[in-house]
Write a structure and sequence with these properties.
Blueprint: E1 12-15, E2 18-21, H1 24-35, E3 38-41, H2 49-64, E4 68-72, H3 75-89, E5 95-99, E6 102-104, E7 108-112, H4 113-116, E8 122-124, E9 127-129, H5 133-141, E10 144-148, H6 156-164, E11 169-173
Parallel strand pairs: 3-11, 4-7, 4-10, 5-7, 10-11
Antiparallel strand pairs: 1-2, 5-6, 8-9
Helix pairs in contact: 1-2, 2-3
Length: 174
């Protein structure tokens, strides 16, 4: 991967007062994530993890045309990530949302694990619940999988999504 265009000016971050360069530790994390296919980034609350996600997804879209699926545990994080990424991309990259009653797919899609598990057909008692084909395609064909709050990945739903994903790159953030 050619990281030469990956600098503070390329990766400006929105703030209440306008735009500012990305924090150095965030830029370092983005560079590392782009040079490996799998890994976990451990970083404290409010340290720029959503910015990391946005930068990695943007770079892999621009370089390879790869779509990114970001899995979050709760509706609050779904809303927060969708809003932050839409602001970060300034309308240049479409951000989809699967959860909270919405099912739209974009170049970057943020989804709750609870919504995504609807991709597979399930049998409950005598009833068969057909899986959602759009969700199945999203889980199976997205090239980049990012688990936000990846410490939830030990839950069976998160594990199932991770194991059935067709992603070329898989990252966890915690």
């Amino acid at each position: 991967i050619d990281l030469s265009r990956l600098d503070e000016n390329y990766l400006m971050v929105p703030t209440a007062d306008g735009w500012k360069p990305m924090w150095p530790h965030v830029l370092d994390s983005v560079r590392v994530m782009l040079t490996v296919q799998r890994g976990v980034v451990k970083s404290p609350t409010a340290s720029g993890k959503t910015t990391m996600i946005g930068a990695v997804a943007r770079y892999l879209w621009e370089e390879y045309g790869w779509h990114t699926l970001i899995v979050v545990p709760k509706k609050g994080l779904l809303d927060q990530n969708v809003k932050a990424l839409r602001r970060y991309y300034k309308g240049e990259i479409e951000v989809g949302q699967c959860g909270d009653g919405k099912k739209t797919v974009g170049v970057v899609t943020v989804a709750t694990a609870q919504t995504l598990i609807g991709y597979k057909t399930r049998i409950t008692g005598k009833r068969t619940i057909k899986g959602n084909p759009m969700l199945r395609k999203l889980v199976k064909e997205t090239e980049v999988l990012i688990l936000d709050e990846s410490h939830h990945a030990s839950a069976s739903t998160w594990y199932d999504l991770s194991m059935h994903s067709g992603a070329r790159r898989r990252y966890g953030l915690r």
